[in-house]
Structure formats: C-alpha cells, structure tokens
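User: I'm writing a tutorial on reading structure tokens. Could you give me a worked example: one chain, its sequence, then its tokens, then a sentence or two explaining what the tokens reveal?
Assistant: Sure. Here is the example chain.
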Amino acid sequence: MQVVRQCSACASRAAGGFLRNQTDISLLPSRRGAVCSRDLSSESGPLSSRKSGVQKSGEWTNAANMSIASLSVARGLFTQQVETLTHDSLIRRAVSVVTDSSSTFLSQTTLALIDALTDYSKAVHTRIAVQRRYLASVGKLTPSEEDLLKQAINDLRAEVTYRLDECKRFESSWINAVNLCVMAAEAANTSGAEQASITVRTNIQVAQSQVEEARRVSADAEKKLAETKVEEIQRMAEYAASFEDSEEHEVHEAYLRED
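And here are its predicted structure tokens:
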C-alpha cells in the first residue's frame, strides 16, 4: 500500500511538471484531485487503491491532452492575427497617423492665427481711439501735450504694422496646414479609411469658419481706421483753413490800423 501511494505521488508530480511546461494553469484539476495520496490512504484495501490510482492517472492524461489542444488553438489565433496585417491594413494605420498629425498642425496654426488677428484688431482700435482724441484736441493742446499724442500715435502705428506682419506669418502656416489636411483626407479616402477622411474634412471646415470670423473682426477694425484717416484729413484741412482765416483777419486789422 505504501508503494502504491508513492507511485501515485510520483505520477502526480510528473503530470504536474508536464502541465507547468505547457503553461496552461487554468486547466489544472482541483486541489482535491491533485492530492491523490490523501484519497489513497483513506481507501480500505489495495484493490480500491489501485483503481483510484488508475483513475487519477487517466484524469492527468485527459488534462494534458486538453492543455496541448489549448496551446494549439492559441497558436492558431496568433497566426491568424499576424496574417491580418496586410499591406492595406498597414497603409490604413499609417494614414491614421498622418491624419492625426495634420489635424494637430491645423489646430495649432488656427489658434495662432486667431490670436494674431485678435491682437491686430485690438491694436487698430487703440490707434483709432488715440487718433480721434488728437483730432478733437487740435488747436487746444499745448505744444508738449501735442507732441506726446503724436508720439503715442506713431508708437501705435508701429504696433499695428508689427501685428499685421504677425498675422501674415501665421496665415502662411495656416494655409500650409489646410493644404496638408486636404491631402491627408484624400489619402485616407483612397486607402479605405473613410472615417479618418471625414474627421479631417470636418476639422478643416471648423478651422475655416473660426478664422473667417476673426478676419471679419479685423476687417471691421481696418474699415474704422480708414474712416478715421479720412476724418483726420478733413479736420486738419479745416484747422489749416481756420488758421489762415485768422492770420488774414489779423493782417487786415493791422492794415486798417495803419490807415
């Protein structure tokens, strides 16, 4: 009886090592079936012990066969997954990377251009306010106050020029981003990535609408600046005419006094 228990224990260790080598732990039998020596010791006779040992050995054999079958299925699934990586699928993956990158480029350039147009509009409105203040004060300011206002107007004129150049620089990058997104959308559509193509085209439409709104605001500011320049010409002409009339009047009065 002791010999039977030792043989059964050896069979259990051998079968357990075999299953561990197959790396399929989920198919191991329960703890009660694994510890066969306890069940053998509880049997009443050597015949029942031999039957139990044979039964347990059959269970280990079935478990081993199931482990091998599981590994075969896993190997087949892995092979099938590798075979799905065709040229078309790899191209679609590459196109997805391109569409994502071009959309990011478009988003950043759109934000930069909108900020530049906003700063340009603010600079133009500030210049208009100072310009109109100067026109309303012509002939009423001291020479020092007039010089300060003229210097402020010149500084604002330089600021407006700088902001306009910045708008042109970012607009160039934004146009390149739009063109890149258009090409990426076409490539995605050709390769079969329809959803990526639709997403990029939607991003282009959103960016164009946002930039168009910022351009409209800056165009309104430029229109008001042009109107202010016309007012400046008229106001300075009126001031010069009134100044000449004043001088002629003074000359005429001096002539009469001489008479």
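What the tokens reveal: The two ends are 159 Å apart (CA to CA). Residues 123 and 219 are 13 Å apart (CA to CA).
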